[in-house]
Amino acid sequence: MSAFRGFATRSQTTPIEKHWATVTDLFDPVPDSWGLRGDLYLWLEMRSALNHVPIPEQAAALGPIISSLFFVLTGADLSPEIQVHVTRFERGGMSSGMVDGDFWYNTLIPMNQQRAQWLIEAWGGR
After folding, report:
1. What is the pLDDT confidence band of residue 5, given thresholds at 50, 70 and 90?
2. Would you kindly state where each structural domain of the chain is located, as residue ranges?
3. In this structure, are residues 50 and 61 in contact, taking their beta carbons and an 8 Å threshold?
4. Which residue in 26, 15, 29 sits closest to 49, CA to CA?
5. Could you give the CA distance from residue 23 to residue 16 in angstroms, rounded to a whole number?
């Protein structure tokens, strides 16, 4: 039982196996804060949609994947200058249904790229 306890205490720092990993794995844990109210709902939709997409060999390749899915799910090209309203994300409040392109472009994509880079390096890649 002590061997299991040791493994359990290291579970948050043990990378997922490469052949099991998908881009969805990079979406956990969720960020501590959000740009606008709709960002959480877009995050959840992306996490679900990327369930079968393997993590790319280079972390930089993650940007175009997320940007493309941003367009598919919001109908808008991702850029730092855009704020887009998505009706299905409305839950009440001043920015209800709004998604912040700047937050995705400058915070969320780089965060997931860093997570991917950590995994790639843990798997022995560069």
Report:
1. low
2. 2-122
3. no
4. 26
5. 12
**Bridge partners, 98 (sequence order):** 85
Tokens, residue 15: 């990378």
Half-sphere exposure of 8 (CA within 13 A, CB side): 5
Integer angstrom CA distances of residue 86 from 63, 102, 123: 21, 16, 38
- Tokens describing residue 94: 């001043």
What global pTM score does this model have?
0.84
If one counts every other C-beta atom within 10 angstroms of the C-beta of residue 54, the result is: 12
- The number of beta carbons lying within 10 Å of the beta carbon of residue 105 is 20
The pLDDT tens digits of the residues spanning 62-116 come to: 999 999 999 999 999 999 999 999 999 999 888 899 999 999 999 999 999 999 9
Could you tell me how many residues make up the chain? 126
Q: Are 52 and 20 in contact (CB under 8 A)?
A: no
